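B., you asked whether I could sanity-check this one before it goes into the benchmark set. Here's the sequence:
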Amino acid sequence: MKGRMIVLDHLGDTEAAALLVEGKLHDILVDDADAPRPGAIYRAICDRPIKGQGGMMLRLPEGGTAFLRAAKGLAPGQTLLVQVTGYAEDGKALPVTQKVLFKSRHAIVTPGAPGLNISRSIKDDDARDELLAIAHAADLPDGYGLILRSSCLGADPVEIADDIDAMAGLAAAVMAEAEGKSAEALTDGDGPHALAWREWVAPAQVVTDTGGFAREGVLDQLAALGARHKLGEGGMYVEPTRALVAVDVNTGNDTSPAAALKVNLAAARALPLALRLRGLGGQIVIDFAPLSKAHRKQIEQALRAAFRTDPIETALVGWTPLGHFELQRKRERLPLGDMLAKVL
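And here's what the prediction gave me:
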């Protein structure tokens, strides 16, 4: 199988989407009926401040709770609009933000953050001028901003304008509900099929027939996603625990410095995919195969290059005194193992 393929199907009764590149699983999205989706918007009620953290606990509908960081100027009982930014860890409140965004395939509308921005990846001056003309023709409410995404390059101008109008209309409707008195869910957030259309924008064959996961080999590749990620002679073991995700890299039978450097570089390049397919986030600690301090810079450069194109926000923290490397990765997804246990 050549090129990119997007497969929209279900796992059991649960909506899911898979991205294949040259026949290999490159990304997988699985819905979760038991948790609010990232991107969902709520009218929430301030409950109590968390001293020492500068945050506020919020009440959501049906007894849910959320945590808002940097909650300055808020008082218990006050209502406000918030947007879900990720999934909650076990026993913790749902993470939310007051910076509400309305995102579609080509456009992001930003209430309360006026201004016009075009993706920096669009460098052609003529293309930028054409997009500016489309943006200036849009009818945005006062105080709203607009971001035109990289997918606008080469897109139909009518589709871009329609996306802007749709997001502006949705934003105006939702923001008008900000003054209600009770906690309420205002949008549900996008499911896997909508997210695939929104985020996987490069040219691709799209398969929507029932049974596409089995026919295109997605189920087989999901079944093969165990703890180990093979890297030539060695391997990378990805082990999620309650506190962190531990990653162990080894060289197999060849313990020479050259083999260690080779497998460590391979692990650095493969790590974003390994974490993405398994839905893992939070604190990541990597125990690379034994390497000299002189090789650390090469490994760090490889990590930065690999995560630069990964869609999930990841901060490279650095080396620990014991020689491990730490990352902090946004929890945008639930662990795949937990999801598959629910739906299969």
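One thing to flag: The mean pLDDT is 93. Otherwise nothing jumped out at me.
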